[in-house]
Structure formats: structure tokens, C-alpha cells
Amino acid sequence: MDATQAVAIRVTVNGERYERSVEPRLLLSDFLRQELGLSGTHVGCEHGVCGACTVLLDGQPVRACLVFAVQADGSSIGTVEGLERDDGLHPLQAAFKEAHGLQCGFCTPGILMTMVAFLDEVPDPTELEVREALSGNLCRCTGYQKIVEAVEAAAAGLGGKP
Q1: Measured between alpha carbons, how far is 85 from 20 in angstroms, rounded to an integer?
Q2: pLDDT tens-digit profile of 26-36?
Q3: Residue 70 in contact with residue 57, Cβ under 8 Å?
Q4: Kind and range of the H or E element at 93?
Q5: What residues of the chain score a pLDDT lower than 50?
């Protein structure tokens, strides 16, 4: 197979199944944005450093700029667009809104996806645990304090149920 030969993949994104033919070198971030029109997955550094492109791949946070779409074949992917619930915002999104946990918003989708997975694993985190979990997501606009407060408020409101 050469690098331009399309490969069929099947993925479930935010609960919806998709089948597409993609080039083997197509990044998951580009697949989500260009093929599926899900622009919430932001691409910042393109090196896996900033965390803006973080999505959940089978429940685990991954940098979508470091994963090829073909590697996600057969997987379930969660993006920021999938956080909203029938009754409105996900509790973490609502906490970010209430605590003013965002500025320009570019990094926010990646932070939200990272924190959703984190709160699944650590439902009652300490401030230090939140800060450590956030350390892989870069925000150029804030000092992280409001982000930390938003995550702590969400954890308290969720009662261990993200």
C-alpha cells in the first residue's frame, strides 16, 4: 500500500457512527475537522505539546495531532461537541462558564476533554491533583487559577459522576 492509497475506517464519534475512506497519513485532528466538520478540536502546536487538540479515544485523552485517523479505526472518539447534554451544558462546561475559566477559548476544548477523563479517574481531586492534570495543557491567556477553580467546582457538583 502506498501513502496515498485510501483506507476504509469506521469510527464512532460522540455516539454517531461514521465510515470514511482516508489517506493513511491523515491526522485524527484533520479527520475530525475536515472530514466530519467538528471544529471544536483545535490544532495549536501540531507537536502534541499544547494539548489544544485533546480528544477522548476509547475514553482516554490523546493528542489528535499525534494520532493517524487509521489508528482510530473501530474506536469511539469523544470531542468537545459531544459534551453537551440534553438538559444543556456538561457540568464541567457550566463550571467553566460560572468560574470564568476561559479567556480566548482556544485551549478550552482540549482542557475540557482532559479534565473529563481526569474527573472520571479522580472524582474528588485536590487542587494539586487538578494542577498536575492540567500541566499538559497550555493556556496563554490565563494564570490557570480560574480553570482550577472551575474543575474543583465541577468535581464538587458532579459528586463523582462526570
Answers
A1: 26
A2: 999 999 999 99
A3: no
A4: helix 91-99
A5: 160, 162
Element of type H or E holding 77: strand 76-78
Q: Are 103 and 139 in contact (CB under 8 A)?
A: yes
Q: Which CATH number fits domain 91-158: 3.90.1150.10, 2.60.40.3080, 2.60.120.200, 1.10.150.120?
A: 1.10.150.120
Tens digits of residue pLDDT in 132-160: 999 999 998 888 999 999 999 999 986 64
Q: Rounded distance, CA 39 to CA 44, Å?
A: 13
Output phi, psi for 151, to 5 deg.
Answer: -65, -45
> Domain residue spans in the chain?
7-80, 91-158
The CATH fold assigned to 7-80 is Ubiquitin-like (UB roll) (3.10.20)
